[in-house]
Amino acid sequence: MQKSSRNRKPSKRAGRAKAARASGHRAAKTAKAARSVAPSPVSERMNKQTKLLDLLRRPAGATIAALSDASGWQQHSVRGFLAGVVRKKLGLELVSTVEADQRIYRIVAAKQA
Questions:
Q1: Exposed / middle / buried, residue 92 (Cβ in 10 Å: 0-12, 13-18, 19+)
Q2: What are phi and psi of 48, to 5 degrees?
Q3: pTM of the model
Q4: Cβ(57)–Cβ(92) below 8 Å
Q5: For 69-103, what is each residue's pLDDT tens digit?
Q6: DSSP state of 102
């Protein structure tokens, strides 16, 4: 059975919340400054995506290792990017060939109808 709220002691969190509201102006300034300095995750992702697409559009293509180094992702994440984003989401034609014991991935231009 719960006690009524009248008999409860005030929690420590309530005191912290009041202090945070009182100094909210200062906290908002620092949060705003931190946001302007740090790059947004969306723009960072788009930069990685465009970097990988540029590597794949080269005539020489790119290996999984080269794509992994360029993006900082693990190899299974690069493969997921190739299947999920390049092929499915963007609808690009991705071709892979084996050259000198390495699999090379390339984006080929869509055929004109």
A1: middle
A2: -65, -40
A3: 0.58
A4: no
A5: 999 999 999 999 999 999 999 999 999 999 999 99
A6: E
